[in-house]
């Protein structure tokens, strides 16, 4: 065992070992978020962008860590500034600064021949030259990184999946993004002594990426990444000692090799998982231990049905959004699958005037009643996780009533708000079984399901009540909503459009707290918000404000903002931080800054006067162009057309399901 022990008997190798272990833990914390967020290009650019600061610090005889920190900070500020421009993607801004900072560093080095030999240390590190004070700095950096990761964990998790969800939960995604970039900067600056500016990227990315083959929970991924990074440090120092290779580069190479070994082992494990040699033991284990799901399963009971599942459905790993499109003139109906781009035809329906969706079922107001189409895609949101389902499309039939202005649902009922001010509650179990519900419950005003109850704003006197599914009142809301028109369902609560503003009702067990958000000025009946448009679940809503412009309602901040757009055909917003979209009668789509009301950009999309609309989901906006017989998929940030769906009908009406 002499070959294993001898290298670590030397004091400078011992310091290198401790330094490598500290850096492995530091990079495991920051690198896990880099891998989860897909920020590898940014991390690589920041690592290379440190070179000018290091070179200047060396020229002036200053501390290299301070120079690296200033340079990385300038890189981070530059990326932030460039990516605010809606015309530039984040990759373009990062790439420009990447090349620019690296070029400046090389120019500085080329003009200062006195330390050209030390350039190797800057680029590839000198782990064997670590001193005691460097270990202290690394230990402090590790403590700081652990504190940032612990305090920002919830915000970082929400930010990794959806910044708008983070805003909805009050987690301040912009501040979280700054903290995350600072965490990555800290790890890169503190680690460049070990593997240099060019190779720090490998130690930052490879161990967390390898850990994801063995773990799924973020804390476990960080722990496994720290172990893999530590193993790479030990193995790299041993190989470097015996073969005479560069220590920093060897450590980085071993880390990358561990990633490929993990990938190969994972593939091999997946291949043999269901082979004959393991089916027997697996069956025995599954007999003894019940499968875990959303709810616990007692021994001996049948396997629980996943929440939201219905017979014939398939659970998927991601949303399966579909658009329901209708031609008002011909009555033709189409369902467009936004993943496969397949179009499904349905039998025509005469006299279609409105189209609403509750997230799964589409409700077409026709001459004969409300025709119900099962789009075969839906989701069940549990807050901390979401189930996505996909099933065959079906034509359920026609409910004799309507027209339906809006639709909102939970797992038990769908509430359809009719044009006469009343609502009907349809039993979801009957719909899931493929039949039109009978004996529906009626409500004397706009109704929205929430938390196994239904919130109703009575159109006769403006009283707001929380009712059970049998129609009985279980709680009264303190605030009234005079002349209720327009509803929305958000993560915070149910929204009603009232004559004097918006009423937000949150249903909890035994109580129904409500908040009135009054208009900032007196408004006429023509100016008030009577129909809200927003991304499902979002707390930022858009509504037409008569001929003058558009209202933007921020439920979390409890504010109305009037945007002077002039008359519009349609409006929508994807939520906090996203632009307000407005389609004018001349067929031009405008994007407005939601904070200032100033116009960001505009583009001509549809024929002037065409009866078009806007649907916004978590990633894209969709504009229907009846005159062009097409639907446009648009990037909200810069109004770039991502896809164009050509159709054989004039899609005057549009609704989305599965988001």
What portion of residues belong to β-strands? 25-35%
Overall number of strands: 35
Provide mean pLDDT, rounded: 80
Main pleated-sheet profile? 4 strands, antiparallel
Q: Termini distance?
A: 60 Å
Count of DSSP helices? 15
Strand order in the sheet with the most strands: 4-3-2-35
Shape type: elongated
Rg computed from alpha carbons, rounded to a whole number of angstroms: 30 Å
Give the key terms.
4-stranded antiparallel beta sheet; 15 helices; 35 strands; alpha+beta; single chain; 659 residues
Description:
Residues 114-118 and 273-305 have low confidence and may be disordered. Strands 4-3-2-35 form a 4-stranded antiparallel sheet, with no helix packed on it. Strand 2 and strand 3 form a beta hairpin. Helix content is 37%, strand content 25%. The protein has 15 helices and 35 strands. With 659 residues, it is an alpha+beta fold. Helix 3 crosses helix 5 (64-83) and helix 8 (132-151) crosses helix 11.
């Amino acid at each position: 065992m002499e070959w294993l022990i001898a290298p670590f008997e030397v004091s400078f190798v011992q310091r290198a070992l401790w330094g490598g272990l500290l850096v492995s833990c530091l990079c495991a914390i920051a690198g896990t978020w880099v891998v989860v967020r897909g920020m590898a290009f940014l991390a690589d650019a920041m690592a290379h962008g440190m070179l000018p600061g290091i070179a200047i610090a060396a020229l002036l005889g200053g501390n290299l860590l301070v120079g690296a920190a200033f340079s990385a900070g300038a890189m981070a500020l530059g990326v932030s500034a460039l990516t605010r421009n809606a015309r530039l993607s984040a990759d373009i801004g990062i790439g420009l600064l990447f090349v620019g900072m690296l070029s400046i560093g090389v120019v500085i080095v080329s003009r200062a021949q006195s330390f050209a030999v030390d350039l190797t240390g800057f680029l590839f590190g000198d782990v064997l030259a670590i001193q005691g004070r460097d270990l202290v700095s690394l230990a402090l950096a590790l403590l700081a990184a652990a504190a940032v990761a612990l305090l920002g964990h919830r915000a970082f998790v929400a930010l990794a999946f959806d910044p708008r969800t983070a805003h909805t939960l009050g987690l301040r995604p912009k501040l979280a993004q700054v903290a995350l970039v600072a965490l990555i900067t800290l790890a890169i600056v503190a680690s460049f002594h070990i593997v240099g500016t060019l190779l720090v990227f490998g130690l930052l990315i490879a161990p967390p990426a390898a850990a994801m083959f063995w773990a799924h929970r973020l804390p476990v991924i960080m722990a496994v990444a720290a172990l893999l990074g530590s193993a790479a440090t030990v193995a790299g120092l041993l190989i470097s000692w015996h073969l005479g290779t560069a220590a920093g580069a060897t450590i980085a190479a071993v880390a990358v090799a561990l990633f490929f070994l993990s990938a190969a082992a994972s593939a091999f494990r997946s291949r043999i998982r269901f082979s004959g040699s393991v089916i027997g033991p697996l069956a025995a284990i599954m007999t003894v231990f019940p499968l875990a799901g959303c709810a616990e399963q007692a021994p001996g009971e049948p396997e629980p049905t996943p929440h939201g599942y219905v017979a014939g459905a398939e659970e998927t790993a991601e949303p399966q959004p579909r658009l329901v499109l209708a031609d008002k003139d011909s009555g033709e109906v189409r369902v467009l699958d936004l993943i496969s781009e397949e179009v499904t035809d349905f039998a025509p329906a005469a006299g279609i005037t409105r189209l609403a969706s509750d997230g799964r079922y589409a409700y077409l107001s026709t001459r004969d009643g409300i025709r119900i189409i099962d789009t075969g895609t839906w989701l069940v949101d549990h807050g901390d996780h979401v189930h996505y389902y996909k099933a065959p499309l079906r034509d359920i039939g026609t409910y004799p009533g309507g027209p339906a202005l809006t639709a909102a649902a939970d797992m038990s009922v769908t509430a359809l708000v009719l044009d006469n001010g009343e609502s009907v509650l349809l039993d979801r179990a009957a719909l899931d079984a493929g039949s039109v519900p009978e004996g529906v419950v009626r409500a004397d005003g706009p109704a929205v399901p929430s938390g196994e109850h239904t919130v109703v704003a009575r159109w006769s006197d403006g009283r707001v009540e929380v009712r059970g599914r049998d129609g009985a009142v279980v709680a009264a809301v303190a605030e009234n909503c005079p002349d209720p028109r327009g509803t929305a369902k958000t993560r915070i609560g149910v929204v009603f459009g009232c004559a004097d503003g918006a009423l937000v009702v949150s249903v909890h067990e035994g109580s129904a707290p409500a908040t009135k958000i009054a208009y900032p000025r007196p408004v006429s009946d023509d100016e008030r918000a009577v129909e809200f448009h927003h991304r499902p679940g979002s707390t930022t809503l858009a509504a037409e404000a008569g001929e003058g412009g558009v209202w933007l309602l921020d439920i979390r901040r409890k504010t109305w903002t009037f945007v002077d757009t002039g008359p519009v055909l349609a409006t929508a917003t994807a939520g906090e931080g996203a632009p307000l979209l407005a389609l004018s009668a001349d067929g031009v789509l405008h994007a407005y800054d939601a904070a200032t009301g100033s116009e960001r950009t505009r583009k001509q999309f549809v024929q002037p006067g065409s009866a078009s609309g806007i649907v916004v989901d978590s990633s894209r906006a969709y504009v229907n162009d009846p005159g062009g017989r097409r639907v446009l998929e648009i990037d909200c940030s810069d109004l770039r057309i991502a896809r164009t769906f050509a159709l054989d009908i004039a899609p005057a009406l549009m609704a989305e399901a599965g988001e």
